[in-house]
Amino acid sequence: MKQFLVAAAILALAHSLPAPPALHRQVDPSSGPINRELNDVPILRLDNNNDGESYNYALETGNGIAAQETGSAKGEDGTNAQGEYSYTAPDGQQIQARYVAGPNGFEIQGSHLPVAPPVPQEILKALEQNAADEARGVVDDGQYHGQ
Does the keyword Signal apply (predicted)? Predict the structure, then answer.
């Protein structure tokens, strides 16, 4: 019982001590990486329509950001949407992207996006062989089957 009382007293003492000065420091908002120019960007256009089954919106800001999207809820497929957006990157590059989202997932196109290298011929041949084997009923299930 004495050990419990001593532990409780130490815990109470620890909670009553003030925090180290570093934790009480006031942060100067102008010293951070916040870009003050972005705080007052006017919204030039904002259209937003939603009738419960379909929706569309369009946004345009004073610093060159633009976006628009249309979509609809379609049964088991969930929401299907398509849209585009554009803005100027910090390096000055104009970014433009178009996208679709639906049963096949999110698909995006834009000149700023990396392009995958072409599939090697050997892989294409192997995929063709796999498809031909499956059509003939030859299926490798990954398990060992002794002869």
Answer: yes
Region 32-56 average pLDDT: 80
| DSSP notation for 113-141 | S--PPPPPHHHHHHHHHHHHHHHTT----
Q: Which two tokens stand for residue 36?
A: 């003050």
Kindly report the average pLDDT of the chain as a whole number.
82
Strand partners, 95: 87
Q: Rg (Cα) of the chain, in Å, rounded?
A: 30
Give just the sign of the alpha carbon dihedral 23, 24, 25, 29. positive
Q: pTM of the entire structure?
A: 0.55
127 Cβ contact partners less than 8 Å away, ≥ 6 residues apart = none
Which position has the token pair 């001593």?
6
